[in-house]
Amino acid sequence: MSAVDADFHKYDLSRLQAELRQEKEMKDMLEESVSDLRGTMRELQERLHSVDGEGNEWKTRYETQIELNGQLQRQISMVHDKLEDLRGNPMDRLASVRSYEDMPSDALQQRLKLLTNEKAELQSHLMDCRVGIEEEGKVREGVWFCL
């Protein structure tokens, strides 16, 4: 065999076709693998964004709770101040009445209107609570009756 025949034998058609098929299969597997990896990467990015969103939700909840706690603390301070004003000087039990004596008539009427509204709201709330308790009692009676 001459050198030219040996070189030509290396490039046998059937052998080249087999190598080509093998290379195409390898290429297809790599493309499928790349596609799977891209899909996995997309899913992980979506999960990352959803976790970021949850973190923001918890941060928002935390900040809202801090703000609410601050408001409640201010309300507690105001109630304590009002309580101290109402208690006043233990020796002077009529101090709160005297503070109304010094008020002008218009201010007293506004205060009376405000107190009347507060009373109506409290009575309404009391009735709502009473109805709720009665309904809860009926539900409990029904549960006991069913048992």
From TrEMBL:
Listed PANTHER family: COILED-COIL DOMAIN-CONTAINING PROTEIN 169 (PTHR28671:SF3)
Superkingdom of origin: Eukaryota
Protein name in the entry: Coiled-coil domain containing 169
Keyword Coiled coil applies: yes
Signal peptide: none
Species of provenance: Gadus morhua (Atlantic cod)
Coiled-coil regions listed in the entry: 13-47
Gene3D superfamilies: 1.10.287.1490
